[in-house]
Amino acid sequence: MSAIFNFQSLLTVILLLICTCAYIRALAPSLLDKNKTGILGIFWKCARIGERKSPWVACCCIIMAFSILFLQ
């Protein structure tokens, strides 16, 4: 089943996108900072969410990992 139609898979993809964008911005900020608008601006926004809400994102990642490992 596609990640679009399965809510848990969609949440997992969104969390991975946020974490990946925040990691890339930490390593090479110029890659994401030059694309703040347009379709590539989504990655910049995900990086900002990952930086500003990092305790909440980390908590969601732990909950999602527990859910995937032990509840499926």
From TrEMBL:
<dbReference type="GO" id="GO:0000139">
    <property type="term" value="C:Golgi membrane"/>
</dbReference>
<comment type="similarity">
    <text>Belongs to the KISH family.</text>
</comment>
<keyword id="KW-0472">Membrane</keyword>
<protein>
    <recommendedName>
        <fullName>Protein kish</fullName>
    </recommendedName>
</protein>
<keyword id="KW-0732">Signal</keyword>
<comment type="function">
    <text>Involved in the early part of the secretory pathway.</text>
</comment>
<keyword id="KW-0333">Golgi apparatus</keyword>
<dbReference type="Pfam" id="PF06842">
    <property type="entry name" value="DUF1242"/>
</dbReference>
<feature type="signal peptide">
    <location>
        <begin position="1"/>
        <end position="26"/>
    </location>
</feature>
<dbReference type="InterPro" id="IPR051523">
    <property type="entry name" value="KISH_domain"/>
</dbReference>
<keyword id="KW-1133">Transmembrane helix</keyword>
<keyword id="KW-0812">Transmembrane</keyword>
<dbReference type="InterPro" id="IPR009653">
    <property type="entry name" value="Ksh1"/>
</dbReference>
<feature type="transmembrane region" description="Helical">
    <location>
        <begin position="54"/>
        <end position="71"/>
    </location>
</feature>
